[in-house]
Write a structure and sequence with these properties.
Strand 6 and strand 7 form a beta hairpin. The chain has 252 residues and is α/β, with parallel strands linked by helices. The protein has 7 helices and 11 strands. The strands form 2 sheets. Strands 1, 2, 3, 4, 5, 6, 7, 8 and 11 form a 9-stranded mixed sheet that branches. A two-stranded antiparallel ribbon has the order 9-10. The protein is globular.
């Protein structure tokens, strides 16, 4: 017997992305659930026009918001998507196959990111495998910044096809996110009592660039690969510089 599937998406001001995401999800899911954090653009209107089930709740944090959204789903099995994601045609076909055979355990697939109009097929951004189909009865999201799925002892099945991630349309968007996330990450490290010296800081920055651009072949992605590599290194620099500042302020 085929198991029904609920696609679950959280949103805030995603009018540029959400239509593509919902239309893609509707090809494999039996319902689409959207939990919106009181968007001020046309996100909710677009979702309603596409017949998604829309709920609203104030922002609780990534993990908490996703867990709450899963609770609105009518079905046990969840397809968790971000608003800037969509399924490739190959992934759509593979999901329909496993769904027809009866869902069990959790399902993982690769994520392919589009950066300023270019697909990034190297660096640490690919294959970037993600578990996105799971049972809400045994799995839940955890973590404050980069949320991860706690899957208990579930069997992991990797299926073919790419989850298409339309990440940043401009480099300015990327830099703004780096600024925001580096502050959150530094605060988290500070709470853990972590510290770092200047020599290790610069070694980490250098290693991050070398890993992405050379070892993970980012240079094969041209300008996009170079930008992803240098901005990843810059994010490392900001995170640990902000940590040092927090530790310094604690001592004064």
């Amino acid at each position: 017997m085929q198991v029904q599937l609920s696609a679950v998406i959280i949103t805030f001001n995603e009018e540029k992305n959400i239509e593509r995401c919902i239309l893609s999800a509707q090809k494999v899911a039996d319902e689409v659930i959207v939990l919106d954090s009181f968007s001020t653009d046309k996100t909710v209107e677009i979702c309603q026009d596409l017949k998604a089930k829309v709920y609203q709740h104030k922002w609780l944090g990534y993990s908490e918001q996703k867990n709450l959204a899963n609770g609105y789903a009518s079905n046990e099995y969840i397809l968790s998507l971000d608003a800037d994601e969509a399924l490739s045609s190959e992934l759509e076909s593979e999901i329909l196959k496993v769904k027809a055979n009866g869902l069990r355990g959790v399902y993982r697939f690769n994520r392919l990111t589009n950066y300023c109009g270019n697909w990034v097929r190297h660096t640490s951004w690919y294959p970037d495998a993600k578990i996105r189909i799971f049972s809400k009865k045994v799995c839940y999201w955890r973590g404050n910044i980069h949320e991860e799925l706690s899957i208990q002892d579930q069997q992991i099945t990797h299926i073919k096809g790419d989850l298409l991630h339309y990440s940043f349309y401009t480099r300015k968007q990327h830099l703004l996110q780096i600024e925001k996330f580096s502050s959150l990450a530094a605060a988290d490290l500070h709470r853990q009592g972590r510290s770092i010296g200047m020599v290790n800081l610069y070694l980490k920055v250098f290693a991050r660039f070398v890993k992405n651009y050379l070892l993970k072949l980012g240079f094969l992605d041209g300008v996009a690969g170079f930008d992803v590599s240098r901005y990843s290194a810059y994010a490392t620099y900001l995170r640990y510089t902000k940590l040092r500042e927090l530790n310094k302020n604690k001592l004064t």
